[in-house]
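hey so i finally got around to running the thing on that chain from the lab meeting. sorry it took forever, my laptop kept dying and i had to restart like 3 times. anyway pasting the input first so we r on the same page abt which one it is
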Amino acid sequence: MNEENISIQSNQKFTSGNLGLFVRLPLTKHNMAMASLLCRMQMNESELFLDPGLQQVELQQRYSFQFEAVVQLFGKEMVISYLANFVEPQEILDPDYNYRQIAETFAGLATRPLITPSSVQLAQRQLKEEYQELMAEPSNAALSAFLNNWYADQPDYAASFIGSIEDITKATSQEVRRFADAIKTQASCVFGHVYDARQVKRLLQKKLQEEGWPGLALDFGSRDLLISAPDLRIEKTDEQGKQQAQLFLGYAYKGQPSLQDLATGTVLRQYLTGDQSSRLFSKVREENGAAYTVESNWYADNALFLVNAGLDPDKLDLARQIIGKEMQMVADGRIDPGLLKQSRQALANRHLLNQDHASWLLAKDLRYKLHADYEDFDMMAAVSRVTSGRLADFAQKLYLNESYVLK
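ok and heres what got predicted. didnt touch it at all, straight out
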């Protein structure tokens, strides 16, 4: 076991603690499907609690112990995240509630899934219903179609939401067992924020050694997460008689984004759609009434800056023109200095507030451990260095690669 892969920090300002076991493996539609199925099963039941209706009841009785198993995507890799949140023992006058019980409960839930034909079938039914509900939402259906276009030549990277629903519904208990055994050998790490860090680290090390998790001895970080953007330059429209149209404009980033680009793209996102004073919110929605919603996201690990809007179908051309014009204005250096300053400050304020949330700290631990080059990176310092010139240089490296409409 690599001790660097178990990092428990002392945090005495919170009345609750948290723990996370993270497992990294290659992103494929099959891996994501099997991970989604396994995670749902572990949320339902485990070898600690053999009844799907009992697990949540028992955890609630343990002073609202919360357990979650989710899948997250980071470029070419995916991470299975086992997360626990709990009331710190010193807050409870109960001698039977202690760190030993917490460590054993967390390790048991994360490493000892109950895999039977009935548990697989229950999770399959739940995920199938969820998938149908997700795809009934036009914005989700449009995002899925957009990614299928973007990664037409690399379909594994188009995995979104829960992976291949076909693989989920066809999986057997034997296949799930093989997958659950296999992930123990994949690169893993543990993070946590608790009052008594030394005691919790010792307890978790012992428990995970007993359970057998060889992946904790492997290097967790990766320097090969980036999925370079394909050169598409395509326009596609799916007409399905929707009352509201979904517009997705995908801008590809030329080359490999640097750490400064990570921050600059985040500032651009805030500048364009961060709040009601942002450029696209005011121009597309407020001034022209061309959209109900407009938002943007910077997926640095995918070299993708994505702008999307929900709007009346007859406003599509207008919205597309406004978005294109605003992106070109940034690239030309015609940037509102007051709004840029406001955008940087908004990000700094949000960062400050997030530091009071233990879950955000755990997510930050994961990002920095996974991205091997993040070690000495100060995101807020990089944000503060984003000038009009830097923002323009960044936008000049973007080009419209896919325009997708669902209407």
